[in-house]
Amino acid sequence: MSTLGNIVNLGVNALRAQQVGLSVTGNNIANVNTPGYSRQRAALTTSLTINGLGSGVELGVLTRARDLVLDRQHRFESGQVGRLEFLENAMATIEAIFTEVAGGGSTETGAIFNQASGAALTGAFSRFFNAFQDLANNPESQATRAAVREEGSLLTEQFHRMDAQLSRMRDDLEAEFSDTVAAVNRLTDEIARLNAQIMSDKENTTEVAGNLDDERDRLIDELSTLIGASAKQQSDGTITIQAAVGEGILLVQGGSREELAVSSLVRDGAVVSDLVFASTGARVEVNSGKLAGILETRDVKLVDFEGKLDETASVFVERFNIQHAAGFGIDGSSSNLFFDPGSVSARTIQVADNILTNLDTVATDGPSASNANISAGTGDGTNALALSDIRLEKLFGGGTQTVEEFYSDFIGEVGAEAKSVFMQAEGQRLVLEQIDNRRENLRGVSINEEASQLIVFQRAYQAAARAVSVADEMMQAVLNI
User: In the predicted model, is pLDDT for residue 311 greater than 90?
Assistant: First the structure.
C-alpha cells in the first residue's frame, strides 16, 4: 500500500529525473554552435509497479542523436571528396604549367604556331619556325642566323621550364604524401586512445561517454577525408576502423592501431615513396581520400603529361636533326645537327655546341642538283625552308598529326581532364552537402526544440516539488492530531 513516505520518495525521484533533464537540455543549448556536437537526450523510464501502484520515474542512460547509416554515407563521400579536391588543386597547378595562349585569338588550323605573340611552348615553336622561314629568304645574314640560334635556345628553355615545374610539383607531392601519412597515424593513434578511455569510463556500453564519443566521431570524419576510412561500432563501445587496404586489415581495433609508413622504392628508374604497413612493410592500397588523390596525381597524371612532353621534344628533335644534317652551312660543311642528339627529353633538349659556337654551320643550303655531296650555293636557302616546313609534317600519332596538332591535342587533354575533375569535385561536394544537411538535422541542436524541452522539464519539476510539498503538509497534519 502507498504511504506518505512513498509519496515523498516518488516526488524526490521525479525532482532528480527532471533536474537531469534540465541539465542535459542546458548542455545542448550551450553547445548549439560546437562543431561535431551531437544532441543528447535523457532517457526517463517508469519504475517497477509494486502491488499495482507505480513507484515513480527512473533515469536511464543518456543517448546521442546519431544515425550510423548517415555516418557511414558521410565518411564514404568524404573519402571521395578528399581525393577529388586534391586532384582539383593538382590539375589547377598543371593547367598553369601548360598554359598556352595563341596570340591574336585566331582559331583556324595552324593558328597556334603561326602566332608570333603566342606564349610558352606554342609561341616558342612559332618563332622558331618563322625564324627559319626568314633565314630561307636571307640565308647569308649573320643577324638572321643569330636569331635562329636564339629562338632555338628559347625553345629549349620552354621545355626545360615546364619539365622543371613538373619536377618541383613531384617533389611537393612527395612532401605532401609524407605529411598526410603522418596525419593519418596521428588520427588513428588518437582514436585508439579514445577507444581505450571510453571503454574504461563506461559502466554500460550503451551509455554516452560525455564529449569523448563526439570527439572520436570528429576524428573519424577527419580521417575519412585522408584515407577513406569506414567505422564499425563494437559491442564493447569501441569503434573499429578499416580503410581501403585489403581484406581483414584494420587500422584501429580497440585500443591498438596499425601504423603506416613511407617506403622509398625505384619505379621506372625514379625513386618514389610508397605507402606500407610499418610492422610488415606490406604495400597498402588506397582508393579514396587525399592519399589516393596524391598517388593518382603522382603516378598517373604526372607520368602521362611528362611522357607527352618528352615525346614532343624527342620526335621533333629527331626529325629536325635529320633534315638539318641533310643541308649545308655557308661554310660548306654538312651532316651538322641543330640539337644535341643525346637522350633527348624535355629535360635534356639542347642546341648543339657547333650551332652555339659557329653560326656558319646552320644548314640553310640544299645540295647541288649536279652533286648531292656539295652545297647548291651560299644563297640557296632551300634547306632552311624545308626546316621551316617540318611544322606541316605528320610526325606524331602514327603519321596522323603534325607537331602542332599533337601538342594542341595534348594541351586540350590537360584542359579536358582538369574540367572533368572540377565538375566531379563540385558534384561530389553537393552529394556530401546533402548528406551533411540530413545528418545535421538529426544530430544538431534546435534552440526552439530545446526551449520547449526546458519548459516541459521545468513544469514537471514544479509539479514534483508540489507533490513533495503536499506530502509534507499531510505529514504535518498527521503529527498535529
Answer: yes
**What's the length of the chain?**
481
Answer yes or no: do 351 and 426 share one domain.
yes
- CA dist list (Å): 195 to 205, 216, 219, 275, 277: 12, 8, 12, 25, 21
Closest listed residue to residue 336, CA positions, set 149, 125, 56, 81: 149
In this structure, the answer to whether residues 332 and 458 fall within a common structural domain is no
Q: Would you say residue 414 lies in a domain? A: yes
Residues 364/383, Cβ–Cβ less than 8 Å: yes
At 8-26, the pLDDT tens digits run 888 888 888 888 889 889 9
Cell of residue 237, nine digits: 563501445
What's the number of domains the chain is made of? 2
**Partners of 266 in the β-ladder:** 271
Cα–Cα distance, 244 to 247 (Å, whole number): 9
Q: What is the pLDDT of residues 359-378, one digit of tens each?
A: 999 999 988 877 878 877 87
* Domain identity same for 177 and 45: no
Res. 394: pLDDT tops 90: yes
Residue 285 placed within a domain? yes
Whether residues 117 and 238 fall in one domain = yes
Q: Which of 129, 176, 180, 207 is CA-nearest to residue 385?
A: 129
Task: Name which of 213, 214, 217, 219 is nearest 197 in CA terms.
Answer: 213
Q: State which residues form the domain around 40.
A: 4-65+444-479
Q: How confident is the model at residue 105 (pLDDT cuts 50, 70, 90)?
A: very low
Highest mean pLDDT among 166-170, 277-281, 461-465: 166-170
